[in-house]
Each structure stands twice: as C-alpha cells, then as structure tokens.
Amino acid sequence: MMTANEFEFGIDDFIAISTVLTGYSRAELLGTGCAEEYWHQFRRVTPEHILVEFLENAAKLDRMQATDPQAVAEEIRSRYLSSEKFGPLARTLIQLWYLGQWVPLPHAWRRSFGASRFDVARVISVLAYKEGLVWDAIGAHPVGAKQQGFGSWAEAPPKGGV
Amino acid sequence: MNTPLDDEETYDVVIVGAGIAGGILSKQLLARGRRVLILEAGADHGDDWKTYRGYLDQFYLTLAKVPNSPYPNLPTAPSPSVLDISSVHGTAPDNNGYFVQRGPMPFGSDYLRAYGGTTLHWLGTSLRMLPADFETNSRYGQGIDWPITYKDLLPYYEKAEWEIGVSAEVEQQTPEALGIHLARPRDGDGYYSEGYQFPMHAIPCSYSDNYFAKGADGTPISTGYRTDFADKSEPGLDVVKIKVSSTPQGRNSTPRAPLEENGGFSVGGERVEPFKPRGATGSFAFTGQRCEGNSACIPICPIQAKYNAMKTLADARALAENTTRKPNGADEPDESNARVADIEKSFRIRTQAIASRVELDVNNRVSGIVYKSYLFPGVPQYELRRARGTVYVLAGGAIENSTLALASGLCRSSQELGRNLMDHPYMMAWGLARDPIGAFRGPNSTAGIESFRDGAFRDQKAAFRLEIGNSGWDFAAGAPYSDVKNLVENDNLFGPELRKRLYHYVQRQVRIGVLVEQPPDASNKVTIDPAYVDAMGEFRPIISYDISDYSRAGLALGHNACMQVFQRLGVKNYTAYNPSDNGYLTYDGSGYTVYGAGHLVGTHRIGNNPKTSVTRPDMRTHDHDNLWMVGCGSMPTAATSNPTLTMAAMAFQAAEAIDRALS
C-alpha cells in the first residue's frame, strides 16, 4: 500500500476524469449511486502506479471543460485515447458508466501492464444495470426498469443528443 | 431396482406440465368439480414474490439477456437455451446444450421448464388463425387439413382471449381490416361472432408503428405472377398492399365497459362479467393491472401486466380453496396443515416432479405416471414416485410431450409421434430511419403487417407475417450495448459527442421480423436415444430439422417486402446475413439468416385417421383411451399466427372432452 503522501488521488479524481470521458456532469454521475462501486472495481483492476498517472490531470481537465473544451478534447485524445497504457482503460471506463458492465481489458494490455483476477466481464450490480448512462443517452429507459407509463410509447421520442 | 412409491391420493385428472395448457385444463376441470394433480418438472414458484424478484434481478445481472436469462437452468430439469445453438456440420450432432441437434438446420427455439412455463417469457401476441389455415392441403396443396374448422374453434378462441386477457379492437382485426388479400373473400364472413368484443381495449401503437403506417401503408408488393388473380392496376400481378395493424396482445390495458349498466359480454356462447385485469400473482398483486411500458416482455415482464400461466394457475387454486371451504364462520384464512391438505386433495401442483414414464395396463390404458421428485434443484438425486388418476394429460409442450411419450412407448399406431415439428422461421430486416422513431420504448412489438397471411400465392410460397419491433436492433445486433461498444472502440468517440451520436444512432433504429409459415414435414422430428440423457437419466430431445423451399420462398418474398418498405420510407438498410451465421440458408441464389420464433408446434397432431395422426380431434390419443396430449403439439399446421392463442382455445376444447369422459 502506498501512503497518503504518495497517493493523494481518490474518488473525486475518478469522477472528474469520468465526467470528461462520458459527457455527463459530476451531479449526474453521482446521481447514479454507482460511483463508489465503479471506483472500487476500477481500482481493483488497475495497478496503483498506473492509476496515479491516469488520474493525475483529472481535476485540471474537469475544470478546463467549461473554459476550453477544445484543449480538453485534444488532451484526452493525445494523452488518453491514443495511449497504449491509458487508452484501453479509458474505453473500458466509458463503457462501465454507459452500460454498468465491466468490459475486460485487451490481452495486449494485460501482458504489458498486469492482469487482474477482477478483470472479467460482468454487470456490476442490479443498480448499475438500471443506471447505465446509455438509456438516458438514447432517450429511453433501462429495459425492464424505470418504466415510462401506459401509452408513453405512442408519444414522440424526447429530443436528444445534448 | 428402484420401486416407485405410490402417492396416497388418486385424482380425477393427472396433468404433466404447469404451463398455459395445464393451467387452463386445471381451471376448467376444477370449475366442473374435478380433482386435479399437476406434475411440473421445473422449480421455483414464480408466484412467490421473492422468487419473481429473483428472476428479475437475474435478468438485470445477465450479460446476454436471452429469453431464458432470468430463469434458472436447473441441472435436474434443464431447459434449451438459444445460446447453445450452433451450426450442425456433417453427421455429428451438435451436443452443446439440452437439445441434441442433428440438423441439417439448427432448431433455433427454446422453452422454459418452470412453474408458469414459457408464458413467463412469451411476447404476448395473440392472433387467431385464418379459416384458410385449417385447410391448406385442399386449397393450396400444402401441408395437411385440420379435422376441425375455424368455425369449430371460434367459441373457444373467445374463451381463450378472455382467459389470457387480450387487448384489441374487433373492427381492427377482421381479415379485411388487416388488409389480407383472402384467396376466398367469403372466409372473412363471421370471423368474429356478432357483437363479440375483446376483454380490453387495444394497447396503443408505438410512435414507430405510426411512422411505418403513415409512410408505408398502401405500398404495393408483388407476390409473383398469377394471371387469374390479377390486380387491375397492374395486370398480370398478384399485388398485396402493405397495411400496418395493431397487434392483439395478452397484456393488460383498459378493460372494456359494457354498453349498458350492469351489462355483460357474450363469450363462447356464455354471458360473462366485464373483464377484471389480473396483476402480478402473489403479494405484488397491486402491480401489473395495466402495462407500464417496461419494454421487457421478452424475457420478463417485471410487473406481470403481460399474461402468464401463473395467473390461470392461481385462479385454479382459488377455485379449489372455494370449493373445499367449510362454513365455520371464521374470517381468518385458515392456513393450517389440515386445511392445506384438504385443498390439495382437490388441487395439487407438485413442482420439482419430473414425469419419467407413463405406465400402461393390459388394456392399453394409462395406469400411472412414474415421476422423479427432487428436493434440491442443483442436486440430481430423487425419489421415485407414482401418480395415479382416472385421466392423464401430457401438457408439457410439443417437445417434452414427445420425449415422454416416446420414452414410454406410447402412441405407436401411426408413425407420427414426434414428427412434424414446426416453428416460424424468423428472419429480420433492420435499418436506420431518417428521423428519431422512439426505439426502446413500449412492449417489444405493438403492430405488424398481416397483409401476407393469406392469398393465392400460398400454392407456391409460404405465407408470413411481419412484426414491427419497438426495441431497435436489440435482437438483430445487440443494441444498444453493441452501439456503445462500436462508438467507443471503433469510432473513438467520448464525452458529449458520444452521448449525442448514441441518441441519433439508436433513436433511428428500426427492425422488422419476418415470421414465415412452415408446413409439417415428417423428417422434422424429435427422437430419443439412450446415448443422450440428462443428469437425472431422462431422455434429452434429439432434433432433426430443416426448412423447405416452400418456406424459403416465403422468406425471400418477406425480405423483398421489407426492402420495399425501407425504400418507400427512406430507411437506410443495414440488414446483413452472414454465411457463418448458425441459421444461414440460401434460396434462389440469395442468402438469409433465420432464428427460431419460440413457436414449437406439431409432434402429436390431431386427426381423424389413427394412421396419420397421434391424437383425435378432441386431443385424446388414438391408442390410449384415458390419455390426452394437449398443447401446441396438437396443431396439424402452424400457419402464420403465433400459436399460443390457438393452443389455449384447443385446451378449452380438451377440458370439455375430458370432463365428458369422466362423466
């Protein structure tokens, strides 16, 4: 275990990078009630030194979103999505929030950065299924939950796409 | 040698299978004062709220949300799973799951062995057959004629619709209103009895249904050349016009009020009270009295607004409670062991009881059913017992009925037992509409295109119906999961752009299902072999299955119809059939992929001739005087309607016949 001095990042940074990657606000992400579970899962799979690096700029990027989204997007693409180390983690993290599922990291990543026995495909929890961001994003509701009411399906779909 | 223990109680009727057929039979026979025992191989009383919530949680937690995903697949009473299907190569059978598949095509349908049966995951579509469907052989030279006609079944259709609780409007469901180009227009006369009404009003059509109706209604589709059956506007062609119609559904909407105060309705020649929607069974009875749009009919309606057989079974139990109640003046419900035993003398459902052998006496009458009663669903250990009754009924579904009857050496006069297995080969067409159409909202399907369910073309090509889906590309491509994966992993999107693209991509997804008629074929069959048994030593079904050119011709026409609808609406076509798909087949130089529709029909068809049918028109077996076989297996042909309603109607007929036999 690292000491508090060595590792000063926590769930706040996890939420911060998650807001940038998912396009959902901090309030929306916390509102799912799943942040703790996801943070726990993410931490279990990611070796600590990689986790530290992954979260290092999170708070700054989150703050910059309001003022300079162009620069944030540039940074996400250059530092995260196109990185051998961070790319797979970022893509799995996005899908974690959107689907409530853990999408296992690619074999190449595991070989280079370490395999975890927690890195297996699964729906994190009943709540995680229902709170998957995809249902909101597509203007619907989780299949089998949060029903919209009798006849709602006859109405025009909500205007969406942020 | 393991000797079965005899059950203490002897019943009037012993039924194998606690599904919709078993439910209707029990309820009808109890209402006539008969005493009934049901043996159900599966476990988990879904009528206990804890179990049903367990089913729901299992659905949420499963990665592949296939029809059987919420329900436990017991080692003691396994169910087939669509996830076990693979292509069958060469002569080695596919042995992946519960079924042993001999091919050449994989049989793509599943069912559920549990209390309530496969109605737990059915869609709820409740269509009647058409008059022509009962005589396809004499009219079109295809399949076989039924020993009964549409008119014979008509009053029972009404009873079945009121038992299930079907939501629809009569005036929207006549063959004419459905835009069916009847080969004999007079078939449409009296399709509904004078003054008949469905128990509940139609379920509203989805926004996407209306999009299809507005854009595609009236689109002419040529079925092939038939100079003697020509449309005047296009001489020489038999043309069917697309008509999108609301689908009658076994899910609760608004009950119909009678025209006058204190009035009733006429159902199957009897006067009945206005329909009272039944919600969930057990202590969640306050939910499910009306559909709320959970969009999860398959695999599980969370609130049970969709009909399932547990409702009929609960009614049956209530009847047993009423008839055995002694006037003791107490308001408190008596739940003592003595009281339960009293009720169980009248009606008992034994779950975790696998019917293993039907025993015959010297007169070829059934003398008992030996069953394996197991304590723990995960442990293949059992006690061998014997149930006795006066009349016996196999109501475990087309395939389980056949394996049990074959294992017991029953019904040998004809060679038809286990043969003529049918389904509705199910093919999909999918694409992107130009505008958002509201995918993933509402019951999985609320409308269809019924225009191709009859017509002169049936002498060359199978009839079919088109089902308009409300759940995007879920069955077709695993949406919306696959869309998230694609946009993140292939399109390299993130943040607001990902969110926006997901909306525009998924919201425009449309999907049409083609369900094509499959005529009976002796080589499509269920057999058994001692080499293939399950953990309890019971025979696993061995299935040989293929899809004939007649059905393939129907599929090809269905595909063309979908493409023309897409062209008319400007839908961007994404339909793709891959030669590596398990259900890939070719016809006339083109390839298509088919799945099962879960409509398991045939195997013990009714008929007047004991040489060509297994059961008589009233579903009593030709060979065994006190044995009935009831269910979709009784149907000589599958036509184009989802079979549950027809099977339910036939179960009402069978109940009357059994009651007469007992008198």
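qc> Chain A touches chain B through 48 residues (CB under 8 Å).
qc> done
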